[in-house]
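Worked example

This section walks through a single chain of length 174. The input is the sequence exactly as stored; nothing has been trimmed or padded.
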Amino acid sequence: MRIVFDLLMRIQKRRQLPLLLIGGWAVQAHGYARNTLDVDCLIAMENDPAMAEELTKAGFECFEEKPSFRRFRHRIDSLIVLDVMRVNASTFEKMWAGSESATVSGVELRVPALAHLIALKLHAAQNEHRVEKDLADIFALLRGNPGEIPAAELRMLCDQFGTPELAERLRDFL
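Given that input, the structure is written out below as tokens.
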């Protein structure tokens, strides 16, 4: 995956295009190691055309698109997958402002603050096929970073980005 991290770093520098590493690699940056087969990043929606152009130049093609994300794979090595989540500019700015630097496979990238990463995981867990994976990540992040997210803040995140069912499953932390 080093090749993808290097590419993301080059795109940021060349196009002045801020992005955040999210998903499994961001979870690892916050202290919970788990296997992941793809790379996920977050950008502001306005930067989507520039990102797509850069990825196309680097040999990637979009193979799936939804309103909030695109999935790219490399034309030569289809196992190299990069998911690009797109959010509005104000959401991205909030997340960027709270982000922190992390070194992943020797490359320095920015990852969301722990609370923002948990918010992303709560939002994703609303999709039935993702519930168990994303809740497992949230449990591990909370256990691995005790006290960093106070119960009241976690409750607010559950109310804003999750569901009552997800909050119930996180009750031991609330």
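What to look for: The chain has a mean pLDDT of 94.
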